[in-house]
Amino acid sequence: MRTRSPAVAGSFYPAEPAALAAALDRYLETGRQRLARAGAAGRPKAIIAPHAGYAYSGPIAGTVYAAVRAGTDGIERVVLLGPAHRVRVDGLAASSAERFATPLGDVPIDRVAVHDSARHPQVHVLDAAHAAEHSLEVQLPFLQRVLSRFELIPFAVGAATHAEVAEVLDDLWGGPETLIVISSDLSHYYDYDTAVRLDTDTADAIVALHAERLDQESACGRIPIGGLLIAAQRHGLHAHLLDLRNSGDTAGPRDEVVGYGAFAFG
Length: 266
Known about the structure:
Blueprint: E1 3-4, H1 17-38, E2 46-49, H2 54-69, E3 77-83, E4 92-94, E5 99-102, E6 105-108, H3 111-117, E7 123-125, H4 128-131, H5 134-137, H6 139-146, E8 151-157, H7 162-172, E9 178-183, E10 188-190, H8 192-207, H9 222-234, E11 239-246, H10 247-250, E12 257-265
Parallel strand pairs: 1-5, 2-9, 3-8, 3-9, 4-7
Antiparallel strand pairs: 2-12, 4-8, 5-6, 10-12, 11-12
Helix pairs in contact: 1-2, 7-9
């Protein structure tokens, strides 16, 4: 597979480039305003961003990507991890593709880094895990809009431990040229008040860097999040909550909602 084609363009986000760019710019501008009101500053080394359809999670993703845009100088590669929703994955699934395509263009893959990461037994190439996976894809247009050019190191995460994810992140950590992105939604399909309570507890655990407090109710991406929290502790990072809302706040009813959080680590 030389190019991984978009799987959810036209459903999760606009397929027409001009419409997609306009939507991204709206989310980024409202995110910038939200950060300005909160007085948030500082260049993130790593972020957690949601991955639902843009109508639902786009405003929250816009908040954290506005923080990335404010400190993009020197970022040349992005390590992107998200949960595998479509295919069973043991460990971390890499891709054999040379590029991932979106309506905004192609993102080149750092093939050297992907090859080197395969020295870990928990990493293996599984293109089927990437073919229809939305958790990674929906982050790419945001990244393309805030970074001038970058190489991508993508992993779909399945049955792995937090420590196994942290081990891979440590290898790819790099310096200011490397941004780490964890793609995850929070609670799923609870009523609004229950979701707010659960998501607040999850946000508290993330900010405290307590991976052991994450469970199946916390987030679909709890495994890559937990790996980041362990790596963040090792590298002396602090986590900051930038935005915490759910689909009942953005574009859906409140009887069954999905939670979204935006976190920056620096």
